[in-house]
Amino acid sequence: MKPDMADLITKWAMEVAESELAAELPRRWAHTQGVAERATEVRGLLGEHSALLVAAATLHDIGYAPRLAVTGFHPLDGARFLRDEHGADERLVRLVANHSFALLEAEERGLRDELASEFPLLEEPLLVDALVYCDMTTTPDGARTSAPERIAEINSRYGADSVVGRFIRRAAPEILSSVQRIEAALAAQPR
User: Fold this and answer.
1) Cα radius of gyration rounded to whole Å, the chain
2) Nearest Cα to Cα of residue 80 among 50, 112, 71
3) Contact of 48 with 9, CB cutoff 8 Å
4) Is the pLDDT of residue 173 over 70?
5) Are 167 and 159 in contact (CB under 8 A)?
6) ∠ CA 178-186-190 to the nearest 5 degrees?
């Protein structure tokens, strides 16, 4: 992606996320800003896909916006909004739909077939891992954290017997593996 196009997509993503989240969900907006900041920090791993990562990080939780919450499953609601109202890039929409192993939560909610058929998984492991890393190393308030601490926080906030609690337990090994792969790639980068 050309630098000017990269700047445009990241600016657009920030404007859309801010307009949907900042006023009504300030804590979710703080998390979103933190995730976008993590994406900016790791974008060097992604080369030409760096703007796509930053845009996906910025928009990953857009589906929490009250006016967009149709199914109550934010990855699906957010992806549909981006596709239907904004005609967003298919790869961006698929990243938002499937961020942080959303397919496992969709299964818990009885929405697996719906999510998988509308928004197939993106077969770009580094990009997928990078988005997981950004989301799962950022607290609800936008601060940096470790993936194990983030998983524990999600579990305690929602409760072990909730849909999200069951999902996060199932997804934890995959989340930790994704984060470890990105941390290894970052450590291997020349300084």
Assistant:
1) 15
2) 71
3) no
4) yes
5) no
6) 155
Which amino acid is located at 149 in the chain?
E
Give Cα 71 distance to the centre of its chain: 18
The C-alpha torsion from 76 through 116 and 97 to 54, rounded to 10°, is -170
Paired tokens of 32: 């979103």
Asked if 55 and 92 touch (Cβ cutoff 8 Å), the reply is yes
The encoded tokens of residue 118 equal 């509308």
Tokens (6 digits) for 41:
């920090």
Q: 3-state secondary structure string, 82-101?
A: HHHHHCCCHHHHHHHHHHHH
Residue 5's pLDDT is: 72
Q: What's the CA gap between 182 and 191, in Å, rounded?
A: 16
Q: Is residue 3's pLDDT more than 70?
A: no
Residues 95-123 have pLDDT tens digits of 999 999 999 999 999 999 999 999 999 99
Q: Which residue's entry shows tokens 């939560």?
A: 105
Task: Look up residue 134 and give its two tokens.
Answer: 């950004």
Contact 10, 58 (CB under 8 A): yes
Q: Report the alpha-carbon distance of residue 86 to residue 173 in Å, rounded.
A: 34
Strands (E), the chain: none
Determine the 3-state secondary structure of 141 from DSSP.
Answer: coil
Q: How far apart are CA 80 and CA 135, in angstroms?
A: 20
CB atoms within 10 A of CB 156: 10
